[in-house]
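Human: I'm a chemist; would you kindly supply sequence and C-alpha cells for a protein?

Assistant:
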Amino acid sequence: MPFHEDELEAAEEVHLRSLTAAEAEGDERAVEAALRPRSLDEVVGQVRVRDQLGLVLEAARQRGRAPDHVLLSGPPGLGKTTLAMIIAHEMSTPLRITSGPAITHAGDLASILSGLNEGDVLFVDEIHRMSRPAEEMLYLAMEDFRVDVIIGKGPGATAIPLEIPPFTLVGATTRAGLLPGPLRDRFGFTAHLEFYEAHDLDLIVHRSAGLLGVDLTPEGSAEIAGRSRGTPRIANRLLRRVRDFAQVRADGVVTHEVAQAALDLYEVDSLGLDRLDRGVLDVLCRRFGGGPVGVSTLAVAVGEERETVEEVAEPFLVRNGFLARTPRGRIATPAAWIHLGLSPPVAVPDSTAPTLFEE
C-alpha cells in the first residue's frame, strides 16, 4: 500500500535521526545500514531486477498473499540483504534474518520456522552453506508449509508433522552453482545482481553524501564512483573515508583533488584495485612469470585464504580483463602487466588456445 506524503516525510525524518545517532555513536555498521534504500523506488541501478521484483510484490499484494520465495545471487556488496529488507518493507511484514552456516542441524531450521507468523519474510544469507539435513527439511517447508519433526531414534522414531503459516523465503548466495537443483527449483523468482555502472554508483554516492551531510562536488563524486569496483557497499565505505580525509586535511569539501589524495592514501588506485588485487597480480607477474598458477598457490603467496582470493579479488580482476581462468590455473593478461608498470613477456599465455590434453 503506498504511503501518503506526510507519512513519507515522517519516515524520512526518523531515518535521518537514526543516521545522525549512529554517526554520533561512531557505529560504522549502523551507519552502513542507515544508508540502505528502504523501498524499491529508492534503489539505484539493477533496473531489470527492480522491475521484475516490483511486479512480483505488487501481484502478491493484490492477491492478499505472501509473495513467492525469492533467490538473490551475485557477488558480495551488490544489495542482496538490502533487497530482502525492502521485500519485507514493501509487504509491511517482519523480517527474520539468519545465515546458512548458522543452520547446522535440521532442528535449528525447525525452531526458526516454528517461530514464524503468517506472511513473515525469512532471509537466509549464504543459503548454499546450509547443512544437507536442513536443506531437505526446507524442501517440504517451502512447498507444503510444514515440516516433519523426528522424535526419538532408531525403530521407535516418530515423525510429527508441524504446520507452518505461509511465509516468504528470501535466499541470498554468492555461489548459486553450489545450490542443489531441488532447492533452486523451489524458488518462484530468481534474480542475479550485476555489478553497477559508474553513473549508477555516482548517484548512490550523491545520495549517501546527502544523508551524511558531506559537501561533495560532481568531480569528487565521479572519482569515488570510478574507484568503487562496481559495488555500492565499497562506494559508501570509500565515501566515508574520503569524508574523514577532507575533514582532517582539507576544508571539508570533497573535490576531485581531495578524493584522489584520500583514495591514494588508502591504497585504492585509479581503477579501484586495492592491496589484495595488486598483490595477486604482482605475485602472478613477478614471481610466476604471468602463470598459469593454481589459485591455492596464489592464496599462499599473498597470505590470504583461497576463498578470499576466489570470491573477493578474482571476480573483479577477471571482469576487468587483468586475470584469466584456465584449466591449468590463473594467468595474467597483458593489461595486468601494463597496469603494474611492467613490460609484458614476448608471448603471454593464451587462455583460449587449447592445450595438448584439451584437444
